Amino acid sequence: MSAIGRTEITAMIPHAGAMCLLDRVLDWSETAIRCAAVSHRARDNPLRRAGRLDSICGIEFAAQAMAVHGRLAGAVAVRPQAGYLVSVRDVRCEIPRLDLLEDDLIIAAERLMGDAEQVIYQFTLAAAEREILGGRAAVVLMAAPA
Predict the structure, then answer these.
(1) Which of 19, 58, 77, 97 is the most exposed place for a label (fewest CB within 10 A)?
(2) How far is residue 47 CA from its own chain's centroid?
(3) What residues does each domain of the chain span?
(4) Domain at 4-142, CATH class
């Protein structure tokens, strides 16, 4: 599939402005997605605290990639009113901070199972081909009012 930019991404997820952390979708299939982000270097990144962007914040990058995948793969026909990250498991964090990375982040997510109400993904974040964060996430989707 062809690359998708930030404008199209913001139309697919409820995050707007600086809170939309993804810059482009590199590729996707029915079961997986790969996105790129540069917002980890932005001084106005809304996840920064005390001038730092801790690596654990990468889970939000992954959650946004999962949301985009749900829309692109047709698993979620209509943008949900909300998606709630209900659990993360087996999280591995290899570095303390994302804001110190000079390379773009590559966010990969693979849908392991789910339906229109809940999904489970495996995710990784990498920079310069080095995995820096990984794990699994479960998301519950709230349908938009009819």
Answers:
(1) 77
(2) 14
(3) 4-142
(4) alpha beta
